[in-house]
Amino acid sequence: MAVVEKPSRTRPWALACVVFVAAAVAQRLYWIAGGRWGYTACDRTELVDPAGGCGADQVVTVPFWSGWGALGVGVGLAVVLGCTVRFPGKWATAGSWAAAALLLVVAFPLHLVFEVPAALAGRPSDWRDLGARLVLVAGGVLFAGLANASGPRRGPVAAGYRPVPRWTRRWAYVAVALPVVGWAVPHALWVLGMPVGISERALNDIERDLSTPTGVAITLVPPLAGLLVLGLVQRWGQQFPFWVPGLHGRQVPRRLAVIPAGVVALTLVTYGVLSIAVLVGELLAGDTRWSDVWDGWAVTATLLVFLGWGVSLAVTTTGYALTTSAKTSMTDLPGSEHP
């Protein structure tokens, strides 16, 4: 009797990644050739026309990283994809994970968390940019799926509920508190017309550019999203709660929690580090004065909030991953006693 081989579990992920890479490369070639469909110049021009790409049709030559640079990245993704399919192994799988992380970091999901609710609330938004970021997120998810499918089969997650170490719980509380204290509180004060930590001019700009629904959305969405961190230290982060139909009591797939949390942590840290580096560079070059920093100390402090938020989330995610690993004994975790 002939043996029928089961289809490779990497095949659907690989085909989806091929479609993503081919579409990305074709779009960049189209832009390089002079086409401008889907292109936006809102981050490089003074024109205020988000819906029309801020004069994208008037751009003669696209910047390097929007054209040839992005094309080179697309070729690199194609090479990683080919190696993962043709030469499976830990190095190829690591390459796919790296590609997924790159795409997700470049997409900067935190920007989507801010801008999509504001756009839905009626604020004029650059939908070309938001669409491109969503596509990058989809590409990151596809490469993560490919890496997961091509890697070695892992053992099961630890059965039952395991309380996380106390240090993990404390870092989780920090990750929840930072967006509330460092983001929601000052933005709420600004929306209410109180110039705390910013100049009167900056407050006037906020009142002019933000409608009340948009201001409320920008203020509340990040801390509400931050509450998901509690899932890394609570029972419902390891076992589906009663209100999830059909899954009540089942184990939560470990990667379902670790991968999104890890990507968000990496994005926050990257944004914080790069933003601080830009600010330091502007101070050294004299483009920004120390008096401007002091006048807008609340805005400057936000950069540190992002960095601290990312670090605390990364530490919490590490504690969750160690706790839920079937290979880790509870006695191996410091501070693993019940809180």
Automatic annotation (TrEMBL):
Keywords: Membrane, Transmembrane, Transmembrane helix
Record keyword Oxidoreductase present: no
Coiled coil spans: none
Top-level taxon in the UniProt lineage: Bacteria
UniProt keyword annotation of Membrane present: yes
Membrane-spanning residues: 12-31, 65-85, 97-118, 130-150, 171-192, 212-233, 256-285, 297-322
Protein name per the record: Uncharacterized protein
